[in-house]
Design a protein that fits this description.
Layout (H helix, E strand, L loop, with lengths): L2 E10 L4 E3 L1 E6 L2 E7 L9 E10 L1 E6 L1 E2 L2 E2 L6 H12 L3 E9 L3 H14 L8 E4 L21 H12 L4 E5 L6 H9 L3 E4 L6 H10 L3 E2 L15 H8 L3 E5 L7 H10 L6 E4 L11 E4 L2 E6 L2 E3 L12 H12 L3 H16 L15 E4 L5 E4 H5 L12
Helix pairs in contact: 1-2, 2-3, 5-6, 8-9
Length: 386
């Protein structure tokens, strides 16, 4: 069997950024990482400038390619969203259904079961409807409600089918027993869209919640005498997603939160992307038009309604603007979200298709896939959001 040996400047192996490694691929799949000096002298060698890394993993993707999951909760809708983000280097997504009727949430769950593993679909994120009306953001208040057996049943169905499931809820919208039940099912219970006190947050973490949704956004703030939800998350050992687009959270606050966590490898990037990524500059949400204006998605009142950013752009901003070192930034874009889902293979190089591995340039932007670089890719790839 003919092998290809690739010599990149650096390889991110899912944990560490390393020099002096060669990648061996056979039939478009990586079979080995080894020191350059161990490569056979008669090997077919491809020099690749830049860093090779597993593709990005995004756990909060509302839409893409002109499709909003709430409006198209089908396998076809999920595939369209996943493929839209794959153009920009995100190879694994959990499509995200936001606050809506039970029927929409149930349809999204059925679609996730049918589409799992296709086009990089690796689970489902249910964001709401069991959230705080005070901190609901763009979520429609008419659908916000306390946790109920119907949603727990949907999560149980997903987990029995082996689907990685994240559910965002507010502690004040669920009992501790309900949180414990969801965690016992194997769901990732993520706290968000909440006006909870620090004490309520801490109790929810103790009950089984293990994550927080878009830190700082739609959360009770951290004040000098009241840590709020934000302070509770930062002081905890829970995972926390964060949006790094320069609009949702100030760059200085992103850096502060990363530095302030008591344990490493708990922060991860999310895009919170909407249909405008790889799609038109406007879409409908709850019957209202959301438009892209100067890089921000806003509703008629001028409030933020999701994000227009890719994981590639988020990673680049994290390194070049926030000042996070490249290894830590790659962990936040690849390794930590894979850990959240308990899918470590998503952060691996060995065993992966060359179309699931990225080549990053010296300026931290995504050049393309490794398959592009060595001429075996069938994927279309773009390096910017239109």
């Amino acid at each position: 069997m003919t092998s290809k040996w690739i010599f990149p400047d650096h390889v991110f192996d899912g944990q560490t950024l390393r020099r002096g490694l060669a990648i061996q691929s056979q039939q478009g799949r990586v079979v080995e990482l080894c020191p350059v000096e161990a490569v056979p002298v008669d090997a077919r060698i491809f020099q690749v400038a830049g860093t090779v890394s597993p593709g990005f993993v995004d756990l909060q993707v509302n839409g893409g390619g002109g499709v909003l999951l709430n409006q198209c909760p089908t396998p076809e809708g999920m595939r369209a969203i996943a493929l839209a983000h794959r153009q920009f280097g995100t190879v694994a997504v959990t499509p995200t259904v936001i606050t809506d009727t039970h029927d929409v949430v149930a349809a999204a769950a059925d679609a996730a079961i049918r589409a799992n593993g296709d086009s990089g679909i690796v689970g489902l994120h249910i964001e709401g409807p069991h959230i705080s009306k005070v901190r609901r953001g763009t979520h429609d208040a008419q659908f916000v409600r306390p946790m109920d057996d119907a949603t727990i049943g949907v999560v149980a169905k997903l987990r029995s089918a082996g689907i990685s499931t994240m559910i965002t809820l507010a502690p004040e919208a669920a009992t501790l027993d309900q949180i414990a039940k969801l965690a016992a099912l194997g769901a990732v219970v993520s706290l968000g869209h909440t006006n909870a006190t620090s004490e309520q947050m801490t109790a929810a973490f103790a009950a089984g919640a293990s994550c927080a949704t878009h830190l700082f956004n739609a959360m009770s703030p951290m004040l000098n005498r009241s840590p709020g939800a934000v302070g509770a998350v930062i002081n905890s050992q829970a995972y926390a997603g964060i949006i790094c687009d320069g609009y949702h959270v100030a760059d200085e606050m992103v850096g502060l939160a990363i530095r302030a966590r008591p344990v490493p490898n708990r922060m991860f990037l999310v895009s919170d992307a909407m249909p405008t990524v790889g799609g038109p500059n406007a879409f409908e949400l709850y019957g209202n038009t959301i438009s892209l204006k100067q890089g921000q998605l806003v509703n008629a009142e001028g409030s933020l309604a999701g994000a227009h950013i890719t994981m590639a752009q988020s990673f680049q901003r994290l390194v070049s603007v926030v000042g996070v070192d490249k290894e830590t930034a790659l962990q936040m874009a690849v390794t930590v979200p894979a850990d959240v889902l308990k899918q470590p293979e998503l952060a691996a190089v060995v065993g992966r298709s060359v179309d699931d591995l990225l080549v990053l340039g010296i300026d931290f932007t995504v050049v393309g896939t490794l398959g592009d670089q060595i001429g075996t890719s069938n994927d279309a790839f773009a390096s910017h959001v239109p």
